[in-house]
Design brief:
This protein is an alpha+beta fold and about 300 residues long. Helices cover about 30% and strands about 25% of the residues. The strands form three sheets. It has a six-stranded mixed sheet with strand order 1-2-3-14-7-4. Strands 5-6-9-8-10-13 form a six-stranded mixed sheet. The longest helix has 15 residues. Bound molecules: zinc ion (ZN).
Length: about 300
Protein backbone atom coordinates (compact mmCIF):
# COMPACT_ATOMS: atom_id res chain seq x y z
CA UNK A 1 0.00 0.00 0.00
CA UNK A 2 2.79 2.33 0.89
CA UNK A 3 4.45 1.77 -2.46
CA UNK A 4 1.30 2.54 -4.37
CA UNK A 5 0.84 5.68 -2.33
CA UNK A 6 4.35 6.91 -3.01
CA UNK A 7 4.23 6.19 -6.73
CA UNK A 8 0.92 7.93 -7.11
CA UNK A 9 2.16 10.94 -5.20
CA UNK A 10 5.19 11.24 -7.44
CA UNK A 11 2.91 11.10 -10.41
CA UNK A 12 1.25 14.22 -9.07
CA UNK A 13 4.51 16.11 -9.28
CA UNK A 14 5.45 14.86 -12.70
CA UNK A 15 2.04 15.58 -14.15
CA UNK A 16 2.20 19.16 -12.98
CA UNK A 17 -0.07 20.66 -10.39
CA UNK A 18 -3.49 19.58 -11.59
CA UNK A 19 -6.41 19.67 -9.15
CA UNK A 20 -7.40 16.06 -9.87
CA UNK A 21 -3.98 14.94 -8.75
CA UNK A 22 -4.48 16.77 -5.47
CA UNK A 23 -7.84 14.99 -5.08
CA UNK A 24 -6.14 11.63 -5.56
CA UNK A 25 -3.63 12.55 -2.95
CA UNK A 26 -6.33 13.62 -0.48
CA UNK A 27 -8.01 10.23 -0.87
CA UNK A 28 -4.73 8.46 -0.17
CA UNK A 29 -4.15 10.67 2.83
CA UNK A 30 -7.55 9.84 4.20
CA UNK A 31 -6.64 6.19 3.92
CA UNK A 32 -3.33 6.48 5.70
CA UNK A 33 -4.72 8.82 8.37
CA UNK A 34 -7.95 7.04 9.13
CA UNK A 35 -6.57 5.37 12.25
CA UNK A 36 -5.34 8.65 13.71
CA UNK A 37 -6.15 9.36 17.33
CA UNK A 38 -7.90 12.61 18.06
CA UNK A 39 -5.17 15.20 18.13
CA UNK A 40 -3.90 17.22 21.06
CA UNK A 41 -5.98 18.93 23.73
CA UNK A 42 -5.37 22.53 24.81
CA UNK A 43 -5.09 23.03 28.56
CA UNK A 44 -4.59 26.03 30.81
CA UNK A 45 -2.76 25.32 34.06
CA UNK A 46 -1.03 27.65 36.52
CA UNK A 47 -1.07 30.58 34.06
CA UNK A 48 0.56 28.47 31.33
CA UNK A 49 -1.14 27.07 28.25
CA UNK A 50 -0.07 23.72 26.91
CA UNK A 51 -1.20 21.00 24.53
CA UNK A 52 -1.34 17.35 25.55
CA UNK A 53 -1.89 14.19 23.54
CA UNK A 54 -4.68 11.82 24.69
CA UNK A 55 -2.60 9.03 23.15
CA UNK A 56 -0.14 9.29 26.05
CA UNK A 57 -2.72 9.44 28.82
CA UNK A 58 -2.94 5.67 29.29
CA UNK A 59 0.71 5.37 30.32
CA UNK A 60 1.06 5.45 34.13
CA UNK A 61 3.54 7.99 35.50
CA UNK A 62 4.07 9.69 32.14
CA UNK A 63 3.90 13.48 32.00
CA UNK A 64 4.23 15.63 28.91
CA UNK A 65 3.25 18.91 27.34
CA UNK A 66 3.80 21.15 24.36
CA UNK A 67 4.08 24.56 25.99
CA UNK A 68 2.83 27.61 24.15
CA UNK A 69 4.47 31.02 24.51
CA UNK A 70 1.56 32.17 26.70
CA UNK A 71 2.28 32.96 30.32
CA UNK A 72 6.07 33.48 30.45
CA UNK A 73 8.32 36.29 31.67
CA UNK A 74 10.06 37.22 28.41
CA UNK A 75 9.33 40.50 26.67
CA UNK A 76 9.59 42.30 23.32
CA UNK A 77 9.93 40.06 20.26
CA UNK A 78 10.41 37.14 22.63
CA UNK A 79 7.15 37.90 24.44
CA UNK A 80 6.06 34.96 26.54
CA UNK A 81 7.48 31.64 27.63
CA UNK A 82 10.79 31.68 25.76
CA UNK A 83 12.78 28.58 26.72
CA UNK A 84 16.01 29.31 24.85
CA UNK A 85 19.14 30.93 26.28
CA UNK A 86 20.47 31.40 22.72
CA UNK A 87 18.11 34.00 21.27
CA UNK A 88 19.25 37.10 23.16
CA UNK A 89 16.88 36.82 26.12
CA UNK A 90 17.81 37.70 29.69
CA UNK A 91 19.15 34.54 31.34
CA UNK A 92 17.08 35.10 34.47
CA UNK A 93 13.88 35.16 32.45
CA UNK A 94 14.71 31.97 30.56
CA UNK A 95 15.55 30.22 33.83
CA UNK A 96 12.29 31.48 35.32
CA UNK A 97 10.33 30.21 32.33
CA UNK A 98 12.04 26.80 32.44
CA UNK A 99 11.28 26.52 36.17
CA UNK A 100 7.60 27.10 35.47
CA UNK A 101 7.61 24.29 32.91
CA UNK A 102 9.50 21.93 35.20
CA UNK A 103 7.27 22.66 38.19
CA UNK A 104 4.02 22.39 36.26
CA UNK A 105 4.94 18.85 35.23
CA UNK A 106 6.15 17.98 38.77
CA UNK A 107 9.57 17.01 37.47
CA UNK A 108 12.75 17.60 39.55
CA UNK A 109 14.85 18.42 36.48
CA UNK A 110 14.74 19.41 32.82
CA UNK A 111 17.34 18.38 30.27
CA UNK A 112 17.81 19.93 26.85
CA UNK A 113 20.56 20.01 24.24
CA UNK A 114 22.32 22.40 21.88
CA UNK A 115 20.24 21.42 18.87
CA UNK A 116 22.03 21.42 15.52
CA UNK A 117 19.66 19.64 13.06
CA UNK A 118 21.85 16.54 13.28
CA UNK A 119 21.23 12.95 14.35
CA UNK A 120 23.32 12.67 17.52
CA UNK A 121 21.59 11.16 20.54
CA UNK A 122 22.19 11.79 24.22
CA UNK A 123 21.06 9.04 26.58
CA UNK A 124 20.35 10.16 30.12
CA UNK A 125 21.11 7.06 32.14
CA UNK A 126 22.86 8.07 35.33
CA UNK A 127 21.53 10.35 37.96
CA UNK A 128 19.49 13.27 36.75
CA UNK A 129 22.08 15.23 34.87
CA UNK A 130 22.63 17.34 33.04
CA UNK A 131 19.94 19.55 34.53
CA UNK A 132 19.64 22.57 32.27
CA UNK A 133 16.71 24.24 33.98
CA UNK A 134 18.76 27.24 35.05
CA UNK A 135 21.88 26.98 32.90
CA UNK A 136 22.52 26.90 29.15
CA UNK A 137 22.99 23.54 27.46
CA UNK A 138 26.48 22.08 27.24
CA UNK A 139 25.78 18.90 25.29
CA UNK A 140 25.05 18.87 21.57
CA UNK A 141 22.46 16.63 19.93
CA UNK A 142 18.94 16.37 18.55
CA UNK A 143 17.72 13.18 20.22
CA UNK A 144 17.18 12.75 23.98
CA UNK A 145 16.46 9.37 25.55
CA UNK A 146 15.86 8.12 29.06
CA UNK A 147 14.19 5.43 31.11
CA UNK A 148 14.91 7.26 34.37
CA UNK A 149 12.11 8.94 36.30
CA UNK A 150 12.31 12.59 37.28
CA UNK A 151 13.92 13.89 34.10
CA UNK A 152 12.03 16.05 31.66
CA UNK A 153 13.39 15.70 28.13
CA UNK A 154 12.88 19.08 26.45
CA UNK A 155 13.04 19.95 22.74
CA UNK A 156 13.01 23.67 21.85
CA UNK A 157 11.22 24.77 18.71
CA UNK A 158 10.19 27.62 16.46
CA UNK A 159 8.66 25.73 13.47
CA UNK A 160 10.61 22.45 13.79
CA UNK A 161 8.84 19.37 15.09
CA UNK A 162 9.27 17.67 18.42
CA UNK A 163 8.63 13.97 17.85
CA UNK A 164 7.88 12.42 21.25
CA UNK A 165 8.14 8.64 21.57
CA UNK A 166 6.95 6.45 24.43
CA UNK A 167 7.71 2.75 24.91
CA UNK A 168 5.08 1.77 27.51
CA UNK A 169 6.48 -1.76 27.92
CA UNK A 170 10.00 -0.71 28.91
CA UNK A 171 9.01 2.69 30.29
CA UNK A 172 11.49 4.37 27.98
CA UNK A 173 11.17 7.76 26.28
CA UNK A 174 12.67 9.70 23.43
CA UNK A 175 12.20 13.30 22.37
CA UNK A 176 13.48 14.20 18.91
CA UNK A 177 14.14 17.59 17.35
CA UNK A 178 13.08 17.20 13.73
CA UNK A 179 13.05 19.99 11.19
CA UNK A 180 13.04 19.23 7.48
CA UNK A 181 16.80 18.77 7.71
CA UNK A 182 16.10 16.14 10.35
CA UNK A 183 13.69 14.38 7.98
CA UNK A 184 16.37 14.49 5.29
CA UNK A 185 18.96 12.99 7.66
CA UNK A 186 16.67 10.32 9.09
CA UNK A 187 16.67 11.59 12.67
CA UNK A 188 13.40 9.78 13.47
CA UNK A 189 14.65 6.32 12.52
CA UNK A 190 17.92 7.11 14.29
CA UNK A 191 15.99 7.87 17.50
CA UNK A 192 14.07 4.61 17.25
CA UNK A 193 17.32 2.72 16.62
CA UNK A 194 18.71 4.13 19.85
CA UNK A 195 15.56 3.15 21.79
CA UNK A 196 15.98 -0.40 20.46
CA UNK A 197 19.64 -0.57 21.37
CA UNK A 198 19.36 1.03 24.80
CA UNK A 199 16.09 -0.43 26.07
CA UNK A 200 15.10 -3.27 23.76
CA UNK A 201 12.17 -1.29 22.37
CA UNK A 202 9.96 -2.98 19.78
CA UNK A 203 8.86 -0.13 17.46
CA UNK A 204 5.43 -1.79 17.20
CA UNK A 205 4.89 -0.88 20.88
CA UNK A 206 5.76 2.79 20.44
CA UNK A 207 3.33 5.63 20.88
CA UNK A 208 4.38 8.68 18.86
CA UNK A 209 3.28 12.31 18.82
CA UNK A 210 4.29 15.02 16.36
CA UNK A 211 3.74 18.42 17.92
CA UNK A 212 2.76 21.84 16.57
CA UNK A 213 5.20 22.89 13.84
CA UNK A 214 5.39 24.34 10.33
CA UNK A 215 2.33 23.11 8.41
CA UNK A 216 1.68 22.40 4.73
CA UNK A 217 -0.10 25.77 4.63
CA UNK A 218 3.19 27.62 5.20
CA UNK A 219 6.09 25.28 4.29
CA UNK A 220 6.90 27.02 1.01
CA UNK A 221 10.07 25.99 -0.81
CA UNK A 222 10.42 27.90 -4.07
CA UNK A 223 13.81 26.29 -4.74
CA UNK A 224 12.80 22.87 -3.50
CA UNK A 225 14.64 21.06 -6.29
CA UNK A 226 17.90 22.40 -4.85
CA UNK A 227 16.92 22.45 -1.17
CA UNK A 228 14.98 19.22 -0.69
CA UNK A 229 16.01 15.71 -1.76
CA UNK A 230 13.83 13.95 -4.30
CA UNK A 231 12.43 11.78 -1.51
CA UNK A 232 10.65 14.87 -0.17
CA UNK A 233 9.03 15.94 -3.43
CA UNK A 234 6.17 13.50 -3.00
CA UNK A 235 4.98 15.58 -0.03
CA UNK A 236 4.27 18.59 -2.21
CA UNK A 237 0.58 19.31 -1.66
CA UNK A 238 0.29 22.30 -4.00
CA UNK A 239 2.91 24.12 -6.02
CA UNK A 240 5.96 24.73 -3.80
CA UNK A 241 4.24 23.77 -0.51
CA UNK A 242 5.24 20.65 1.42
CA UNK A 243 3.60 18.53 4.09
CA UNK A 244 6.34 17.70 6.61
CA UNK A 245 3.79 16.27 9.05
CA UNK A 246 3.03 13.53 6.57
CA UNK A 247 6.73 13.00 5.88
CA UNK A 248 7.35 12.41 9.59
CA UNK A 249 4.33 10.12 9.88
CA UNK A 250 5.62 7.99 7.03
CA UNK A 251 9.14 7.94 8.47
CA UNK A 252 7.68 6.70 11.75
CA UNK A 253 5.68 3.99 9.94
CA UNK A 254 8.76 3.02 7.91
CA UNK A 255 10.67 2.58 11.19
CA UNK A 256 8.02 0.15 12.47
CA UNK A 257 5.61 2.40 14.40
CA UNK A 258 1.96 1.48 13.87
CA UNK A 259 0.00 4.15 12.07
CA UNK A 260 -2.76 3.98 14.68
CA UNK A 261 -0.19 4.78 17.39
CA UNK A 262 0.79 8.11 15.82
CA UNK A 263 -0.84 11.40 16.77
CA UNK A 264 -0.12 14.54 14.75
CA UNK A 265 -1.20 17.80 16.38
CA UNK A 266 -1.85 19.44 13.02
CA UNK A 267 -1.26 22.94 14.41
CA UNK A 268 0.87 25.25 12.26
CA UNK A 269 3.27 27.45 14.23
CA UNK A 270 3.62 29.99 11.42
CA UNK A 271 -0.17 30.47 11.30
CA UNK A 272 -0.43 30.57 15.08
CA UNK A 273 2.14 33.08 16.34
CA UNK A 274 -0.49 34.10 18.90
CA UNK A 275 0.42 30.88 20.74
CA UNK A 276 3.74 29.71 19.29
CA UNK A 277 7.08 31.09 18.20
CA UNK A 278 7.72 30.86 14.47
CA UNK A 279 11.17 31.50 13.03
CA UNK A 280 9.80 31.56 9.50
CA UNK A 281 7.12 34.10 10.31
CA UNK A 282 8.92 36.26 12.86
CA UNK A 283 12.69 35.74 12.31
CA UNK A 284 13.63 37.37 15.64
CA UNK A 285 11.72 35.13 18.01
CA UNK A 286 11.90 32.77 20.98
CA UNK A 287 11.62 29.01 21.34
CA UNK A 288 8.72 27.08 22.81
CA UNK A 289 9.23 23.69 24.39
CA UNK A 290 7.92 20.14 24.19
CA UNK A 291 8.67 18.10 27.29
CA UNK A 292 8.19 14.45 28.19
CA UNK A 293 9.16 12.67 31.39
CA UNK A 294 8.37 9.98 33.94
CA UNK A 295 7.32 10.90 37.46
CA UNK A 296 9.41 9.71 40.37
CA UNK A 297 7.52 7.13 42.39
ZN1 LIG B 1 0.46 27.66 8.38
Amino acid sequence: MERKYKNAAKEFIWQGDKPQSIDNRAAMREDINKMDYSSSIRQEKENLTLYQFPLFQSVPGLVHGVFTRLGGESGGALQGLNLSFSVGDQAGRVAGNRKRVRDLLNLPSLTSLRQVHGTEAVIISNGRGPDTTETPETETGDILLTDRPGIGLMIKQADCQAVMLVDPRHKALANIHCGWRGNVRGVISEGIKHLRAAYGTDPADLLAAVGPSLGPCCAEFIHYREELPEEAWQYQVRPFYFDFWQWSREQLVAAGVRNENIAVAGICTSCRTDEFYSYRKEKMTGRFGSVIGLLEI
